[in-house]
Structures are given as C-alpha cells and as structure tokens.
C-alpha cells in the first residue's frame, strides 16, 4: 500500500470513477512535463494548462504545488517498490546469486526507466515529504528482500536485518550517484553489472551457508 504525505501535501480526494482517474493521470503526467521544462518555476496554473483542465479541477484533487509534486514522487517510489516486490517474488527459491541479480537489475531498471524524472524528483524530494515516502518504499523493499532471501537454498538461517539494510542502501545509493553523474548508457550498463557483483559478494559473505548433507 502506498503511503501519502501528511498535512498540506495530502491530496484532497482520491479518484473513484474512471473519468476522475483519467483526469488525475493527466494532471500527474502534466506535472512531470512542466517539472522537466520549467523546474522551480512549476506552478499549478501551468500544470492545469498542460493537462487541459481548469485550475479549479486541479484544486479538487491537489491543494497546492507541493501536493502535486508529492503525489508524483509517491507514484514514482511506488513503482520502484512494486518492481522490487515483483522481482523478489519471482526469484524465490532460486540460487542466491540469481536472486540478487534479478532484484538488483529490476531496481536499476525501475529507477532508470525515466532518468530525467528520477533526477528531477531528487531535487524536490526533501521539500515535499520525500524522506517519509522514501522510508516507506524502503520498508516495502526490505520486507520483500527478507522474504526472498529466506528461500535461498544455500543459506541456513534468515538474513540479519542489518545485512538487508546494507544491500538496499547500496542499491539506492549507487543508483542515485549514477543518476546525478549523468546516467549515460555506458554508466547504466556498468551500474547493472558492478552493483550485482557488489551485492552478490557482500550477501554471500554475510549469510550463514547451509551445512552440506551427508551422502
């Protein structure tokens, strides 16, 4: 379940009917487009114009500029967390190295799907409830990682919380570094490879291997 920011960042209402859902989707995409083109000059008026709705319609859902940006950030983080959860579910019971490769690459792909959006949202995150949203996304992702790693055939005991925290921190931190460094195609290829190796090596070292069975 996605978490929403509190207070003035909270949307006024959630769309229920199909038409309302389409309207909110158009507003969300318009917010991204205006954010990319105008940056700090983003306003609710410009977003409404780009979305093809009145400012009054926009205000039915979002009370201010910060609420708009918080909603876009929440959607982005929700997609990343969902990608990790899906990858973890798919990789259960696979060899440990394959598990980690599947999850790391899913995380990188989700963050790099629209590098311009990911980078733009980093600049506003701290002002629109980003820390709380990121914390919730991290909790979802780490929970999925623990559930997956517990099924690895090579390990004897569940992974320590700190090990999972460090793996997720490595994924998030290195991916952000590459984004802020420009995220060229070559950099993304290197990230996908080296981050897999980093996480595989670290987790394999820290987890207790299953004792071999006697013949």
Task: Provide a quick synopsis of the model.
The protein has helices at 18-38, 44-51, 55-61, 65-91, 96-112, 115-124, 130-149, 161-180, 185-206. By secondary structure, it is an all-alpha fold.
Keywords:
single chain; mainly alpha; Arc Repressor Mutant, subunit A; 2 domains; 0% strand; elongated; disordered N terminus
Describe the structure.
The protein is mainly α and 215 residues long. The protein folds into two domains: 60 residues, Orthogonal Bundle (Arc Repressor Mutant, subunit A), CATH 1.10.10; 135 residues, Tetracycline Repressor, domain 2 (Orthogonal Bundle). 71% of the residues lie in helices and 0% in strands. It is built from nine helices and no strands. Helix 4 runs antiparallel to helix 5 and helix 4 packs parallel to helix 7. The N terminus is likely disordered.
List the helices and strands and how they pair.
Layout: H1 18-38, H2 44-51, H3 55-61, H4 65-91, H5 96-112, H6 115-124, H7 130-149, H8 161-180, H9 185-206
